[in-house]
Structure formats: structure tokens, C-alpha cells
Description:
With 198 residues, this protein is of the alpha/beta class. The chain has a single domain (9-196), classed as NAD(P)-binding Rossmann-like Domain (Rossmann fold, 3-Layer(aba) Sandwich). It has 8 helices and 5 strands; from the N terminus they run αβαββαβαβαααα. The protein has helices at 2-5, 28-42, 85-98, 116-127, 138-147, 152-166, 176-181, 188-196, and strands at residues 10-16, 45-51, 71-73, 104-108, 133-135. The strands form 2 sheets. Strands 1-2-4 form a 3-stranded parallel sheet, sandwiched between helices. A two-stranded parallel sheet has the order 3-5. Helix 4 (116-127) packs across helix 8. The radius of gyration is 18 Å and the shape is globular.
Amino acid sequence: MLQKKCGVKNIAYTSRTLQDRTTLQNKLMHDHFDTEDYIKQSGLNYTIFQNGLYMEFLQFFVNKDHIEKAIFLPVGDGKVAFKLRANQAEAMANVLLNEEFENKTYQFTNNETYTFYDVANVLSELSGKNIKYTPVELTLFEETLKQRGLPDVVIKKMGGFLLDIKANQEAVVSNDLENKLGRKPATLKEGLKVLFGF
């Protein structure tokens, strides 16, 4: 391994927290787990951060200027342990500044999971508008993306990502983030209030 030959002793890697690597639809995520395996076999001291889905992800599907529009996604009632990127970054910094590289893996997720029905309900409460989430079939969602001019390769990757949400791949819950922050991470309501400026 080149890093070891160059005298590198420690390595930190940001990966993903997902339920079951063997059933993932989003093939891009396999690269993360293959990299984890490679690091563990390298002989280097490591710290791996398996990070849950950012709450900021919701900004791709909810337009602040047209927030009353319904949310159409092929994720059914799949759950996600959304957390703010800032919470994750702070926890990672705490680990890297205060702990040795002791071959540990941390799962940085929120303490609870949320469906997109929850997202719509919280946005309705915060905005004072009636926001609905409508689950749709993947084929209909993909057709919408095609009409917007997105390349087929992007549509396929997005579809796999959303199917993983539907299958609860993003529903892993861990207390690691709270422990390394020293406080509870932002709830869905607290996070959306920050992200959408309510």
C-alpha cells in the first residue's frame, strides 16, 4: 500500500451508514464499503465515519420559493435518520482532535428516523402552508427527470438511491453522533427551521 510505504500511520475515512451492503440498489455505495475493507486490511490505524444522510438532501426536492408544492418521490414510507451536516462535521472534528486512531468505526446518524410524510408535516407546520408528500412509482419519477433533460446515467443512480430509502437502508439509528457531539443532534423540525429560514 502506497500510503504505508510513504510513512503514513493513520487514516480517517468518511463512509456511509446503510442497513445492508448486500442488498443496496445504489451501486455507488458499494465503493465505500470496498474502501473500508481495503483500509482494514492495510495495517494502518484507522477511524471510519459511517455517515447517515444529510438533512440538506431535502433541499434538492423542496424549493423554498415554492414550498407549497407537493413532494413527489418513489420512497414509499421509507425512513431516514436525517441529521445536519454541521452536527456531523463537529462530531468528526471532536473525534479527530481528541482521540487516537484505534481502529474504530462510528455511525453518525440521528437518534430517530423520519418518513417523508414527517418531512411534509413539519414543513407545513413551519411554513403555515399545506405541504403534502405523494409517493409515486419509480417509472413515473424517472419519466419526470427525463422531461427535465437529466442524463440516463444520472436518472439511474438517483433511482437506485431513492429505492434504497424506500427499503429503509437509511433507517440505521445510532447514539454515536450524540455521544461525540456531547448533546442531542438537531431534530427534523430544528434542522428544517435552519435550512429553510423559518
